[in-house]
Amino acid sequence: MSNNRSGNFIGGLIIGATIGAFTGLLTAPRTGRETRKLLKKSADALPDLAEDLSTSAQIQADRISENALRSWDDTLGRLREALFAGIDASMQENQALKQERNQNTSNSLPEHINN
């Protein structure tokens, strides 16, 4: 969850910086030629910025995927343990019932058969 928040923060920071820089360029007291040069430089930097954002998003997605896989493995392990414990308890209960039936059967037989 914190990985997602840091990814959102980084993305927001980069977008905010870009918007701030663009707004600053448009409101700066420069000549049109100087402003166009700065805008061209900024536009030339956008592909790199987009690549950085893409890389950051991919890193965040990989982290989230790894965490989800780890969580799934943990859950699967606990499920297996619970399943085996249930099977073991069922087998023990089955054996106890069989022993109880055998005792009840031997107690209900006539005495000359028991001896």
TrEMBL record:
InterPro entries to which the protein is assigned, alphabetical: Desiccation-related_membrane (IPR052928), YtxH (IPR024623)
Region Disordered, annotated ranges: 94-115
Designated name of the protein: Gas vesicle protein
PANTHER family recorded: GENERAL STRESS PROTEIN (PTHR35792), SLL0268 PROTEIN (PTHR35792:SF1)
Residues annotated as transmembrane: 6-28
Pfam family, one: YtxH
Species in which this protein is naturally found: Calothrix parasitica NIES-267
Keywords: Membrane, Transmembrane, Transmembrane helix
